[in-house]
Amino acid sequence: MKTLDLHHQYHETIKVFKEVFRQKGLIVYPTDTLYGIGGDATCVEVVEMIYAIKKRPKHKPLSVIVGNLEQLLTI
Predict the structure, then answer these.
(1) How does DSSP classify residue 3?
(2) Among the listed residues 55, 1, 48, the one whose alpha carbon sits nearest the alpha carbon of residue 28
(3) Using one digit for the tens of pLDDT, what is the confidence trace for 17-62?
(4) Which residue in 23, 47, 59, 70 has the fewest CB atoms around it within 10 Å?
């Protein structure tokens, strides 16, 4: 496990995120109110891990963050 400060270690953080996503891993990140769990939303194994960790029923959707409409259309 590694803790990074996006504001002070931007390039290293992006590099680590890419590697975690390639390895089908998860990241934990702060939001305005709590922490989020993230990973490659196009990978079934990653989505299953998030459901399991959150103990979330499969009929409840997860939110997905994309950079722009073009990225959304490629999913």
Answers:
(1) -
(2) 1
(3) 899 999 999 999 888 999 999 999 999 999 999 999 999 999 999 9
(4) 59
